[in-house]
Fold these 2 entries.
Entry 1:
Amino acid sequence: MAELTLFFSAFLAATILPFSSEAAFLFAISNEMPIPNALFAASSGNILAIVLNYYLGYFLFKKSKHKLESSKTGKYAFDLGHRYGYLALLLSWLPIIGDPLTIVAGLVRLQFVWFVLIAASLRIARYYFLTLVV
């Protein structure tokens, strides 16, 4: 049951809702949840949510395509997203800015496989690093 709670808290934290999965993760470990279970629950919830974010961005493109292409700023932003999108994903593990970056990745249509490899591995690494700190 505790693993499921951690999974959902990590999922919600990876959306644009203001929620801290790190606090829930540390709470679970401090209450003697086995570290592998905590890593799996938090990472899988977080990764599932960033995949959802990617597809939200992906489908937002269809709704905003005309507006993006018709404005100079929109074209510039879209070009920046394509040029630096994968590099920007290296920041996707950070609180506050990371989750919107996963939406932008879908909006600018970064390749899904590379998106998952970069963003998911950083999410797992973040939780693993927390286990080393505690």
Note: The chain has one domain: 2-133.
Entry 2:
Amino acid sequence: MADLKYTLGKIKFGEGLNLEDTAKIKVMLVTTAYVAAATAADTMATVNAGEIAAGGGYSAGGSLLAGNAVTDDGGANMKFDGTNLTWAASTITAGGAVLWDDDTVDTPIALFDFAGDKISSNGDFTINWNASGILTLS
């Protein structure tokens, strides 16, 4: 589950942010030096400053999330989920991942902190989402 939900993402969600499979939701990798703040001032411009360098199998802006789905979790919560992400044959060092909307509003949605550097060296860099979903809203 997300370690931080950005205020701007919550505002845009309330305004009708699309998370379904037609949306361009991306996952950007950030360094351990990136410090997120859950304020409306934390925009993609501030997140971009913390992005890891492109290269070694990683492209600027991150990767498009596939399999996006918004469902009822069987209780009183909305669950957002997608398929696990892999940067194959990559050399990457990242401290976290930012889920963001690249459709029309360039909005940071959530930060997933790896609690230190996660590293791949000419191998797969994989993010396995929580079995309960990427995000839940109750």
Note: The chain has two helices and eight strands.
